[in-house]
Amino acid sequence: MKKDEDIFSDSAAEPELVRGGKPMGFFDHLEDLRWTLIKSAAAFLVFAVLIGLFMRQFNNALLWPLRSVQEGRPELALDLGTVSIMEGFTVVLQMCFMGGLILAAPFILLFVGQFVSPALTQREMRAVLPLCVAALVLFLCGACFGYFVLVPSTLAVSVGLNEYFGFVMRWTPGSYYGLLMWLVLGVGASFEFPLLIVLLVYMGLMSTATLTKYRRHAVVAIFIIAAIVTPTPDFVTQTIFAAPLYLLFEIAVLVGKRVERKRHSREALTD
């Protein structure tokens, strides 16, 4: 219990910004910031170059949602075709940039954490580290959900709509990869909202009683988020996306109640 209480204790030791036994000055912090930016840029460039070197394998992986829609339907022609001279080159650059940024994100987060950690108290470190890990895990879960579930579902809805009206489907690499990146990144970012709820409860700006009372309003907000992120207006795709968001909301409420109990225990000890 004491370990948990220390996280919320106001008596945590202040950070000592020292290096080699001497206090760090302004230029020392600038030097650390410079190396943080250099290491982050290097991580991004390494992954972007690796994606460029293994572009064929990377492209085959990104085409899986499209192939899954075609599976069992050999008559369905969904081959991507460019409509401009430089579109293929532009798409390759976008894939290298976005893929490099996504793959380098954990390392960039680590480098940023190393930069700011000397300025954090022990209490703040104990709160920030689990928060960063949870943010990374939630984003990856959201990205995987978008890739394996929402993208194929969206493509299937689009195919059905085009077939119903008799439209010829001529999808371009730009439109396909744009949709893919939007859903993967959008869903990954949307999965971060439980952390915002827990953070607001931790700061005392929101209570779990309020969240429980306005649960119906939260459901409406979740469906609004689903409508913004999903490109198709069908209710099925939005519900598929809204279901895990609502589950995360309920988990955030449970975690928020635990945070509230710890804060109340701390306040009782200080009185």
Write a structural description:
- The protein has helices at residues 2-7, 26-53, 55-62, 64-70, 87-116, 122-165, 173-190, 193-202, 208-213, 215-229, 235-270, and strands at residues 18-19, 22-23.
- With 271 residues, the chain is mostly helical.
- The chain has one domain (2-191).
- Helix 6 (122-165) crosses helix 7 (173-190) and helix 10 (215-229) crosses helix 11.
- The longest helix is centred in the middle third of the chain and has 44 residues, at 122-165.
Strand content: under 5%
Order of helices and strands: HEEHHHHHHHHHH
Number of helical regions: 11
Gross morphology: flat
Low-confidence stretches: 1-12
- Counted up, domains total 1
Number of strands: 2
| Helical fraction | over 70%
**Structural class, judged by helices and strands?**
mainly alpha
Biggest sheet features: 2 strands, antiparallel
Q: How widely separated are the two ends?
A: 18 Å
